[in-house]
């Protein structure tokens, strides 16, 4: 983990999606890890805490985040420009052992809406390591595909609720046609999506990326706990990737 003040290399806005890029060289990063991001200087008392954001891509030189503009802080980020600076603390989060993913014959990635953001790095990371992986992206409609902006949609299977692009239906329906034998599902999306995926845990090994508000990112504040069969777990320390079968979803 490092603390850095980094200059924004590139900033792009696509509807309510903000893509931030930073120069970040030769530091190993794993899928599911995240950074706490805040202003360079906390002049505005509204921003006294950093916010957690998942890595959406990294090639060894450029670190990328995809952020949905939905609140005061993300609106603040959207008004910045290349050359402006932000505070980054990370990488944070617990990751599996390096050989974990290689233990499966097939890995399926399921992203719902902006939840596809961290799965883009998962896809590229696993592909580069020779692991068989397929990405399934679910969106409300054709106008919501911008969350995968810049990604070759021909390489992934797209599901839309209204059928305006790709397959009509919910992305969770993709599991009905997939083989569960020695496969792993990694999903990121809204809580409702995880509740549906619970119906498949008897057949599939499913891991999900959880998102909760957090103040520190180090496991001290206990503000990001989720309930599980073994008690409360901290998203920042025990997660953010959890076995879905172990989670108790409210």
Summary of the model, kept short:
The chain has 250 residues and is mainly beta. The chain is 10% helix and 34% strand. The chain has a seven-stranded antiparallel beta sheet with strand order 4-3-7-1-2-6-5. Strands 11-10-9-8-12-13-16 form a seven-stranded mixed beta sheet, with helices on both faces.
Largest sheet: 7 strands, antiparallel
The CATH class name of the largest domain reads Alpha Beta
Strand order of the largest sheet: 4-3-7-1-2-6-5
Secondary-structure element series: EEEEEEHEEHEEEEHEEEE
CATH architecture classification of the largest domain: 3-Layer(aba) Sandwich
Work out the count of structural domains.
2
Count of beta strands: 16
What is the strand content? 25-35%
Briefly note the structural class of the backbone.
mainly beta
CATH homolog superfamily of the largest domain? Nucleotide-binding domain of ferredoxin-NADP reductase (FNR) module
Shape assignment: globular
Low-pLDDT residue intervals, each spanning 5 or more residues: none
Rg over CA atoms? 18 Å
CATH topology (fold) name of the largest domain: Rossmann fold
- The helicity comes to 10-25%
What is the number of helical segments per DSSP (H or I, 4+ residues)?
Answer: 3
**Average pLDDT taken over every residue:** 94
Q: How many angstroms separate the termini?
A: 32 Å
What secondary-structure arrangement, pairings included, does this model have?
Blueprint: E1 2-14, E2 17-23, E3 34-39, E4 51-54, E5 57-58, E6 62-68, H1 72-78, E7 85-92, E8 106-112, H2 117-128, E9 133-139, E10 157-160, E11 167-168, E12 183-188, H3 191-197, E13 205-209, E14 225-226, E15 233-234, E16 241-243
Parallel strand pairs: 8-9, 8-12, 9-10, 10-11, 12-13
Antiparallel strand pairs: 1-2, 1-7, 2-6, 3-4, 3-7, 5-6, 13-16, 14-15
């Amino acid at each position: 983990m490092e603390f850095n003040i980094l200059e924004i290399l590139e900033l792009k806005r696509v509807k309510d999606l903000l893509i931030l890029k930073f120069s970040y060289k030769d530091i190993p990063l794993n899928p599911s890890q995240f950074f706490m991001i805040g202003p360079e200087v906390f002049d505005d008392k509204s921003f006294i805490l950093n916010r957690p954001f998942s890595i959406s891509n990294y090639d060894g030189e450029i670190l990328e985040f995809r952020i949905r503009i939905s609140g005061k802080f993300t609106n603040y980020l959207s008004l910045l420009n290349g050359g402006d600076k932000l505070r980054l603390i990370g990488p944070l989060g617990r990751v599996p052992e390096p050989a974990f993913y290689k233990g499966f014959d097939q890995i399926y990635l399921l992203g719902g809406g902006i939840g596809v953001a961290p799965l883009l790095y998962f896809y590229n990371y696993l592909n580069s390591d020779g692991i068989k992986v397929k990405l399934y992206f679910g969106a409300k409609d054709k106008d919501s595909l911008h969350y995968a902006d810049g990604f070759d949609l021909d390489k992934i299977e797209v599901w839309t609720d209204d059928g305006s692009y790709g397959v009509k239906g919910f992305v969770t329906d993709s599991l009905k046609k997939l083989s569960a034998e020695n496969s792993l599902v990694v999903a990121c999306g809204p809580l409702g999506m995880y509740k549906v995926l619970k119906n498949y845990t008897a057949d599939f090994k499913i891991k999900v990326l959880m998102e909760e508000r957090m103040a520190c990112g180090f496991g001290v504040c206990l503000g990001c706990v989720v309930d599980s069969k073994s008690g409360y777990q901290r998203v920042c320390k025990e997660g953010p990737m959890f076995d879905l079968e172990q989670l108790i979803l409210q």
